[in-house]
Amino acid sequence: MSDQKATPLTVLSKTPITPTLFSFTTTRPDGFRFLAGQFVRLGVNPSELKNTQNAPDERIFRAYSVASSPYDEQLEFFSVVVPDGAFTSQLQHLDVGDTLYLNPEPFGFLTLARYQEPAPKDLWLLATGTGLAPFLSMLGDLTTWQNYSDIVLVYSARTQAELAYLDKIHELNQQFSELTDNPAKLHFVPIITREKVENCLNARIPALIDSGELENFVGLNLNPATSHVMLCGNPDMVDDTKESLKNKGLAMNRRGVGNIAVENYW
Ligand SMILES: Cc1cc2nc3c(=O)[nH]c(=O)nc-3n(C[C@H](O)[C@H](O)[C@H](O)COP(=O)(O)OP(=O)(O)OC[C@H]3O[C@@H](n4cnc5c(N)ncnc54)[C@H](O)[C@@H]3O)c2cc1C
Ligand SMILES: NC(=O)c1ccc[n+]([C@@H]2O[C@H](COP(=O)([O-])OP(=O)(O)OC[C@H]3O[C@@H](n4cnc5c(N)ncnc54)[C@H](OP(=O)(O)O)[C@@H]3O)[C@@H](O)[C@H]2O)c1
């Protein structure tokens, strides 16, 4: 579908996290379906936002991962603000009641359905920044908790203030651990790279894999026979981490077979 035929959404809530990070929820159009991990094209017309003046009267679209689960009544998104970015320098002015636009065709293959071989034991979800979003959606899907014995969520941010959704991750763990027999065990690994914070690791994801520190921290090994590994966020992280994983014998997932699946945000 073309972006210009997109469906209007109403903003229901906005949660500032830092001056350059926020999340928001919107209405979910009837019949809009997606798989956990997929992204949509989201549009804004800056001139229609309540808090803008003399803003351009045109719809601007960008790819956004859906952070809410396929079963939630509302849609949720987690956004960066790039000060000179055409989209987010406008989107940052968003307020409750504003209109956004959704191209209701879900895209992307960062989904657990892409793995066609029998489910191995452990799922590793490695994110930088807003790359957390598709993994939140997966953690809101019961089958994720049923299909693996261990889920390792690794989430890297520059500062403690930018490590968002900590309460949500805790709630999802509690909620889904009680919903099914023998649920996956969640191992949450927060990484803060530009500050020293207790209980958080303090190096980039590839370095933590190369040194063995990540596996030691979790108490599990990255294993070509048992691990599914998904990477999302900063393209340099994705490239560097792919190399680290390949050095451990893991392979890209192609035609359903192989360990590693990735999504680059820029
Ligand atoms: C498949 C896919 C899914 C995406 N999902 C999300 C999402 O859920 N949340 C989100 O905030 N963005 C997401 N993005 C990025 C998004 O599409 C835009 O790039 C972002 O909103 C910035 O738009 P912009 O026009 O302001 O700046 P752009 O001109 O698009 O980007 C300018 C620069 O900003 C930086 N940048 C862009 N996006 C990010 C980011 N997310 N985090 C840190 N730096 C960034 C890069 O250096 C980029 O070159 C996704 C991108 C892709 C391809
Ligand atoms: N975060 C801010 O303070 C800030 C402030 C103003 C504007 N912004 C805007 O937001 C964008 C950056 O946002 P962000 O902080 O969410 O994203 P980011 O730069 O991708 O940083 C998020 C995490 O990814 C890590 N990372 C970066 N490159 C990596 C690599 N090659 N391998 C492994 N990990 C890597 C970072 O570690 P390192 O710390 O080691 O890089 C950090 O922990 C900027 O382009 C800017 O426009 C951000």
TrEMBL record:
It is an enzyme of class 1 (oxidoreductase). It holds the Pfam family FAD_binding_6. Coiled coil: none annotated. InterPro entries: Cbr1-like_FAD-bd_dom (IPR008333), FAD-bd_FR_type (IPR017927), Flavoprot_Pyr_Nucl_cyt_Rdtase (IPR001709), FNR_bac (IPR033892), FNR_nucleotide-bd (IPR039261), FNR_type-1 (IPR051930), OxRdtase_FAD/NAD-bd (IPR001433), Riboflavin_synthase-like_b-brl (IPR017938). One of its GO terms (biological process) is heme catabolic process. It catalyses: 2 reduced [2Fe-2S]-[ferredoxin] + NADP(+) + H(+) = 2 oxidized [2Fe-2S]-[ferredoxin] + NADPH. Residues 4-113 form the FAD-binding FR-type domain. Belongs to the ferredoxin--NADP reductase type 1 family. This is ferredoxin--NADP(+) reductase.
